UniProtKB/TrEMBL annotation, chain A:
<feature type="domain" description="SAM">
    <location>
        <begin position="7"/>
        <end position="70"/>
    </location>
</feature>
<dbReference type="GO" id="GO:0046513">
    <property type="term" value="P:ceramide biosynthetic process"/>
</dbReference>
<dbReference type="Pfam" id="PF14360">
    <property type="entry name" value="PAP2_C"/>
</dbReference>
<dbReference type="GO" id="GO:0047493">
    <property type="term" value="F:ceramide cholinephosphotransferase activity"/>
</dbReference>
<feature type="transmembrane region" description="Helical">
    <location>
        <begin position="217"/>
        <end position="235"/>
    </location>
</feature>
<comment type="similarity">
    <text>Belongs to the sphingomyelin synthase family.</text>
</comment>
<keyword id="KW-0808">Transferase</keyword>
<feature type="transmembrane region" description="Helical">
    <location>
        <begin position="282"/>
        <end position="298"/>
    </location>
</feature>
<keyword id="KW-1133">Transmembrane helix</keyword>
TrEMBL record, chain B:
<dbReference type="GO" id="GO:0000139">
    <property type="term" value="C:Golgi membrane"/>
</dbReference>
<protein>
    <submittedName>
        <fullName>Phosphatidylcholine:ceramide cholinephosphotransferase 2-like</fullName>
    </submittedName>
</protein>
<feature type="transmembrane region" description="Helical">
    <location>
        <begin position="71"/>
        <end position="95"/>
    </location>
</feature>
<keyword id="KW-0443">Lipid metabolism</keyword>
<keyword id="KW-0808">Transferase</keyword>
<dbReference type="InterPro" id="IPR045221">
    <property type="entry name" value="Sphingomyelin_synth-like"/>
</dbReference>
<feature type="region of interest" description="Disordered">
    <location>
        <begin position="1"/>
        <end position="32"/>
    </location>
</feature>
<feature type="transmembrane region" description="Helical">
    <location>
        <begin position="215"/>
        <end position="231"/>
    </location>
</feature>
<feature type="transmembrane region" description="Helical">
    <location>
        <begin position="240"/>
        <end position="260"/>
    </location>
</feature>
Length: 415, 350
């Protein structure tokens, strides 16, 4: 298409037909390109054009303006190609840097070249309501690790204080009266626990917002173990059954104690791995905490379609907890208290995280009086809204996309 | 209004048939003059034009009293107290004797030796706090709502206590404790004990604290903590000295329980934790209206959520801290209910 200035009357007529403005073709029989460009509103007020037009020619004038723009752009593209890729570097303020102005003298205040405007990228917390912030997840992980270490040390200390079974017989317990001990039940509990933790770990890898959810898990688990340290330490319950084999006490031998602590941490405190030989950590039960918490997290962050999956996990969890009691490894009160504290903390934390109104200190919000409110605000202040259950393969498995869809004329110019 | 006047205009004396000039409510003023001029029959005919628009109550009372709900929660609290008493009697039979099951090692007991009169201090503090709270409740304007909450929380905490006491029985915390002899299966004597415990309120001052086994968790801590929390929540914020005094009373009471070696430390810690969590949970749910409508509210996963909904359904706002005389002079009875308000009412009555 040639430039508008070079159009003849028949070109104008063709263009009008293309644009759907056939009503003007008769009136514009003598109008060529330059005359078309010279048209203004006054021309439409006088006859013969006033008879033809319905809107004082506004529509047509707009079309002419658009035509002018596109023809300018095309002309300069052609010019650029002719001049061996002479590029114009446009600055943010839109001026033409090399001083050369091509064929297109700016008409009506229009710049001849498209101008690239650099938009600074806003920080991640403004771009998305669920920023990743791996640093905070790291802090939560360290906190959980610290709490596990403290628990192990406290178990080791408390072990020295457990009264021997001969002196202090097991306390009367309703469940123990009803059910006799089954020896292999504790292994079932631990296998269930390991299964649940494994399932939760795999599910966590597949979540899209794994940094936020991981942060929550570490914080809650750490706090639960911290509470457990306190309740274990202040009062020491005797062993729940005569079948217990407690390691001998080492009075004050720090080296041997720290070795014990290392062994316990390496084995995760499970009796399957042989690291559960210390006694005294009864109130409240750590196994119940892990079983309950992993089930709650699995249920919370699993897709609604697979309704059978949380049900299976619930069965695993319930059987595991029942087996703890069946094995006479914990008192009933330990299990009850662990269940109560875990569920309350989980629901409390998630309700606070999901409601904006609860993240602020106010007279109506009594939740803000809890001691961990400031760490909670640190972790959750940039998370706006409820974290959706979206899934995404972890980074290593994601294939890099090679194809790139071209969207617009400008985009194609750049490439 | 003007058009309905035209359509319903059956008065033959009105000859012009045009709307009354310059009046915004032609029906009323026109009809008044007409009624005065033409008497009762005409007035009734005129008033047939009126259309009754029933307006719904609107916001109404945002903090309704609903005393029947308060009585339900009072009944619930009493039921749980009786159940606890009964449970203590049952558990008492199962407590191992001190000779065979010595007191468990406790960190606080290692550091601080027993002081004999400390438990009396606890009980006196408890009674003082409860009486101050009763007075404050009596003068509170919305005593029905506040009392309902207090009884419900107290009942629930005692119910949890029943469960924890029953499942595992801890041995006595100190060799000083005197436990009443066991009655092996004598139901009549057990019933007598229950009544004795109830009448004395479970306090050792009144001589009704002879039964052992109710250690996990501590009921005295529950009362002290819960009463302090309620005192603080429902009193003016500026009374910081009052809050401080109550806090000191409660704290001294709780520490004296441990000093007297009457409970293990874990009993007190667990009681404090459960009481505060339940209080905060209930009150946050009640105060924030957005939570009641929100679908992602995990707070509704508790078993007592339906009861909460029943009690707090009609409470639409934060209970303000306002006080009034407990016995209000009923001015409504002295008002004349037959005072005439408008032409509409009087003619309707006629």
């Amino acid at each position: 298409m040639k430039e508008v200035r070079l159009w003849t009357a028949s070109d104008v007529s063709d263009w009008l037909t293309d644009e759907g403005l056939q009503e003007y073709t008769d009136a514009f029989q003598d109008v060529d390109g330059p005359a078309l460009l010279r048209l203004s509103e006054e021309d439409f007020k006088a006859s013969p054009l006033s008879l033809v037009t319905g809107d004082s020619g506004r529509h047509l004038l707009e079309r002419i303006k658009t035509l002018l723009l596109t023809s300018h752009m095309k002309a300069h593209k052609n010019n650029n190609n002719n001049e061996n890729g002479h590029t114009v570097i446009a600055l943010a303020n839109g001026s033409v840097s090399n001083g050369k102005i091509h064929n297109g003298i700016p008409k009506n205040g229009l710049h001849p070249e498209p101008v690239r405007i650099l938009i600074p990228q806003p920080p991640e917390q403004e771009r998305t309501p669920y920023p990743t912030e791996w640093f905070k997840t790291g802090v939560a992980f360290l906190y959980a690790l610290f709490c596990f270490l403290t628990t192990t040390v406290v178990i080791s200390v408390v072990h020295e204080r457990v009264p021997p079974k001969e002196e202090s017989p097991p306390l009367p317990d309703k469940f123990f009266d009803l059910f006799d001990r089954v020896e292999w039940a504790f292994s079932i509990c631990e296998i269930n626990g390991m299964l649940l933790v494994g399932l939760w770990f795999m599910q966590w890898l597949l979540l899209k917002h794994r940094s936020i959810i991981g942060r929550r898990f570490f914080f809650i688990v750490g706090t639960l173990y911290l509470y457990r340290c306190m309740t274990m330490y202040v009062t020491t319950l005797p062993v729940p059954g005569m079948h217990f084999k407690c390691s001998p006490k080492i009075f004050g031998d720090w080296e041997a104690q720290s070795r014990r602590v290392m062994k316990m941490m390496a084995g995760g405190g499970l009796s399957i791995t042989g690291s559960h030989s210390l006694c005294g950590d009864y109130l409240y039960s750590g196994h119940t905490v892990m079983l309950t918490l992993t089930y709650l997290f699995i249920k919370e962050y699993s897709p609604r379609r697979f309704w059978w999956y949380p049900w299976i996990c619930w069965c695993l969890s319930a059987v595991g907890i029942f087996c703890i009691l069946l094995a006479h490894d914990h008192y009933t009160i330990d299990v009850l208290l662990a269940y109560f504290i875990t569920t309350r903390l989980f629901w409390w934390y998630h309700t606070m995280a999901n409601q904006q109104a609860l993240k602020e200190i106010s007279t109506g919000n009594l939740f803000s009086r809890v001691w961990w409110f400031y760490p909670f605000q640190y972790f959750e202040s940039n998370v706006r809204g409820i974290v959706p259950r979206n899934y995404q393969l972890p980074f290593l498995f994601r294939t890099v996309t090679c194809t790139r869809v071209k969207y617009s004329k400008l985009d194609s110019r750049e490439s | 209004m003007a058009s309905s006047d035209h359509q319903g205009n059956k008065d033959p004396t009105n000859t012009d048939g045009t709307p009354s000039p310059g009046t915004s409510c032609p029906v009323h003023s026109h009809a008044a003059e007409e009624a005065k001029r033409n008497g009762l029959r005409k007035a009734l005919v005129r008033h047939r034009d009126y259309v009754k628009i029933s307006v719904p109550e609107g916001k109404g009372n945002r903090l309704p009293s609903e005393w029947w709900k308060t009585f339900i929660s009072l009944f619930y609290a009493i039921l749980n107290l009786v159940l606890t008493t009964f449970m203590i009697t049952v558990v008492h039979e199962r407590v191992p004797p001190k000779e065979s099951s010595p007191p468990l090692p406790d960190k606080f007991f290692d550091y601080i030796d027993r002081v004999q009169w400390a438990f009396t201090v606890t009980e006196v503090n408890g009674m003082v706090l409860v009486s101050i709270w009763s007075i404050q409740l009596l003068f509170h304007r919305y005593k029905a709502i506040v009392a309902r909450r207090y009884f419900f929380l107290l009942g629930t905490l005692y119910m949890y206590r029943c469960v924890t006491m029953y499942v595992t029985t801890l041995p006595v915390p100190g060799m000083h404790m005197v436990c009443a002899p066991k009655l092996h299966g004598d139901s009549q004597a057990m019933l007598q004990r229950v009544l004795q415990l109830l009448s004395g309120g479970g306090l050792s001052i009144t001589g009704s604290h002879l039964l052992c086994g109710d250690f996990l968790y501590s009921g005295h801590t529950v009362i002290l903590t819960l009463t302090y929390l309620f005192l603080k929540e429902y009193s003016p914020r500026s009374f910081w000295w009052y809050h401080l005094l109550c806090w000191l009373t409660a704290a001294v009471g709780v520490i004296c329980i441990l000093v007297a070696h009457e409970h293990y430390s874990v009993d007190v810690v667990v009681a404090y934790f459960i009481t505060t969590r339940l209080f905060y949970w209930y009150h946050t749910m009640a105060n924030l209206q957005t939570l009641k409508c929100s679908p992602n509210n995990y707070l509704t996963h508790t078993w007592w959520n339906p009861v909460f909904n029943l009690f707090e359904r009609n409470v639409q706002t934060h209970v303000p801290c306002s006080f009034c005389w407990p016995i209000t002079w009923p001015p409504a009875c002295l008002k004349n209910p037959c005072k005439k308000y408008s032409m509409v009412q009087s003619s309707r009555e006629e």
